[in-house]
Amino acid sequence: MDEFDSEGLERRLRRSVIGHRPGAPGELLRFIDTVPVENRFAGRPTLIGHPRIRRGFATLATAAALAVALVAGSTLVSMRAGRTAAPGPDAAGWTWQRGDGTSVFQIGHVANGYVGRCAEGLCSSPDGVNWTSPADPRIVVVEGADSFVPQDILHLGSVYLAITIGTAMVAPSGDSSQAVTATHGRSTPTAAPTQAPADTAEPPTYDSGLPADSLWRSADGLHWRRVDSLALGGFSPTAVGRIPGGFVLAAVASRDQPGWLLTSSDGITWTRSSRMPVLATVSAGGSSVDGLWVSSTGGRESGVWWETPDGATWAQVNLPAGVTQLDAAFTLRGGEHVGMVVGPSVSGIVRSADGVTWRVDRGDLAEPAVTLCRIGDRLVAAYRQDEGATSMSGRYVWQSDDGGVTWQPMLDPSGNQLVGLIQSAGGRLSVYSYKTNPAGNTGTFHLDWLVSYGGA
Amino acid sequence: MEGHLLVTGEGTLGNPAADPVAEYARAARSKVDDAYRLAGYILGDAAEAQDAVQDALVKAWRNWSSLREPDNFGPWFDRIVVNTCRDRLRRHRTLRMVDLDQAGEVESRDAFASMLADDEVAAAVSRLGPEHRIVIALRYWRDMTLGEIAETLDVPLGTVKSRLHNALRALRAELGGSGNEA
After folding, report:
1. Which residue has better confidence, A242 or A334?
2. Cβ of residue A416 closer than 8 Å to a chain B Cβ
3. pTM of the predicted protein model
4. Which of A17, A165, A298 sits opposite B66 (nearest CB)?
5. What is the least distance, in Å, from the CA of B1 to any CA of chain A?
6. For residues A280 and A297, what is the distance between their CA atoms, to the nearest angstrom?
7. Quick check: ipTM above 0.95?
8. Any CB–CB contact under 8 A between A5 and chain B?
């Protein structure tokens, strides 16, 4: 049987494909637009959400819930600005607020309202519903010439911090210390003498492999200023999170060196906490009762590490085969952890008793989730049902009130299962629909709902 | 001028870090046709191919930060697509078998299924195991060199050669010895 004519067979194989070279369908082209929206942290160094950090967001959401107009059920009440709202949570505990259809993302809560990223750049809203661009100076004031479009905003007391991505780069040439002095040689009101590494051996020689994020601080939730890199010891920030009594910052110095975790109680003075065990293409960690997780998707260093409670050692996390990144992680009341992974052969919800060893367990959710959020004490997941897999609005949303063991359809105020793209923002759930542009091969997302849970 | 230049503004240096969303969208759009066809050839079904490419696009974005050279997006994305297709083949196990009597009906709605219906050799490929289907699709339908296949599959060149040899032998067996041109 080995004596076949290979050349003849090969010719027939090559011929068989002739006339069968279809282009990708329009839905697939449009799907590309949805990917970064549904997975907003994934293409960037990622902050893995853990209890203390999420608790900060929940605090923000409490204020948000007081500020917003509410929409739920069939009992609609006219509001001052022409919007409609329901008096309170629905039977499932969700409070629904109808969005104005603006294409706005990265919604964050500040002292006098909300800020987000609209097509024109930074935009603002007094209530999370009605958005204006450019941003209202009563809600956000940017000091200095740098562009401020925060990826996330968190606060401790009156101090607010945010990371802005992709607006600044440093060319990899010359002496780094001179460069930092020359570029950031001025003293800013927010830049105090650093306690971060005075003996920093790694020069801040960034190149295309490094994120070019910047850290921003506000002392009042209104006026924002970029934090001088001197305050960070020359490190480049990649993610910021809350820890008890302060903030934690993941930062990197060069492509070839592991990053550092810096901590601060006021967002001004940063202290080196511990060196991360992976290279600079790091997804940053967040704080939890048990420790910190950081992950990297960089080549051989791919994987997730867990910092032990003593803060002195790191353990490599055991994820399902082929999975190198923990895309979301939350610690449940009983101490168990639930998260989400996307791997070549395993995707969906995972669980861990100790934070180190994770197993796939999606409860009774029928399909692997593509998004997992926590709103209040509920988990919210979305997946693509087979029949709607290619639809831009085909993400069916489910909720769980028992830590992901059982899942129920999340019903909108009309009683229909919620369908759309979901994000967790400021402790609330943002729900978007996709509208195709006239050309038909692309589209934009529009905010349909803001949903909060319970007192959040 | 200082040794380091602080640049603000999107894409000023052509640096992909400037706007990863835009860079991802640009790269993905440039390769999505190729990816769709590759998935279709491997899976033999347009809907399956579309689902697989969707999954691959999500995985590519989630691992975008690990792509240090945007120019390598094509081979990198090919690998993700192939791995995704392999997973789908192993998970489903059920291959779509086309009844030749229904070929006309299939042709009107699924380019890949009609390929199987039109061509005896292509149909025979669809009955091979996942690894054999993949290596044949890459070699003869995607027209990759053996080296490119080795890179895409992340296996040694020798493995590609032996896998292709075995695939052709299996295909020949499927065809009952009719693989030669008439």
Report:
1. A334
2. no
3. 0.56
4. A298
5. 9
6. 10
7. no
8. yes
